[in-house]
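# step 3/5: fold
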Amino acid sequence: MTDLNQALKQYFGFETFKPGQEAIVQAVLAGQDTLAVLPTGSGKTLCYQLPGLLMPGLVVVVEPLLALMEDQVARLQVLGEKQVAALSSRLAPADFAAVLRTLDQEKFLFISPETLARPDVQGRLRQLPVGLLVVDEAHCISQWGPDFRPAYLKLGQARAVLRPRVTLALTATAPKRVQADILTGLQLPHATCLIGSVDRPNLFLGVEQLPSDQVRAARALALVQAVAGPQIIYFDRKRAAEEFSAALNAHDIKAAYYHAGLTAPQRDLVQRQFMADQLQVICATSAFGMGIDKPDVRLVLYLHLPESLEAYSQGIGRAGRDGQKALTMLLLGPNDVARAGQFAASLPDENLIQTIFKHPSAYQDFDDPQVALVEAYIQAGFSQAAVLTQLSGRREDKQASFTAMANLLQAPCKRAALMAYFDSPAQPHSEFCCGEETPAVLAQLPQTPRPAQMSRASWSVIFKRIFNSK
């Protein structure tokens, strides 16, 4: 039997596992299909990398974002793993074909649900021994699948084609309802479920109601100026992110905006600058953050009401991954709750679905998210009846998510409400828990940001591990 602590030291340089990691690794190595829920910052990546390195066969990792794929490829290369590849839309057709042809020479393959659904990709993977299928950020099956990426709803069929020895679904945000969606979607009725608490006691969960957008903007600026270290501010509109970024720069605070309207190179540049401490603040929509593993984010600030407690938990979970205390704040304006309630109902209705199914080609170039969603379902091979069923259920789920988010605002203890939603044990209320930010709370935050750049020696070690054999 493999000595897991020795393997952990050999491959990753760690002496001990973080809570929850070892049980997941053991389950995978024992051949058990597994659903694992660990809080953000708990090292979920290691839970598939370590068993993947120890077990035979190809490791296929389904990721939701191109940036996340590229980050994971880079991390494995830093570990000295050369047999790693990604199949994505960024590859030219000839390069895509070349990677597909040489997959038998790889150990890790990163791929999106849409690419995995391609017949040529499934046909090639069917020829190879797949030891481990990993669905990272598996909550996307429940949330993104019905909303705008129907390929997530086809992962169970893809799994049946690949016939992996083991399947591992990983996420940080999955109440029981989402856990059930994941197991159903992946067709894993007998999976081992290893569910950890989502509690992050080093995060202060701040919520403040403000009388106007102007007062909220001033309050946000004051928080940014009061907190030392990297910060992320979330907006529900691209223009708002751009305008606040400009306002911060006018106050000599290095900031940039990030949203889906930027080109891929522009988004990559902003992300790299933030990771390298060349920017203090990112003003972003929900397009930014998944897979961002910057350990020293000291403030995550919401200037709108998140659509769900899952989204809220994901967002605030980007703070304090180094284990030190961090501040998360939700600053609400007078119309935020009403606007979020309207958004919760914004899915295509039956008439629109029927119209597009009658003439799908006539709507392919429409710049409308609801039309694009129905077109995506059609391209993924869903029938009209299946789309109606999926979106009807999702509309109910979104309304329930909005209600849970709104209830959190009224809860005496925000942390207790969040833990209850995720079926995690409640913790005693403390001064560094939740509510309005106070000087006493602010005083507990680290006041000295970490050094901005790695030393030359650190980079030399990394390059040596990339370019030399293990």
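# step 4/5: annotate
Residues 450-470 have pLDDT under 50 and may be disordered.
# step 5/5: archive (pending)
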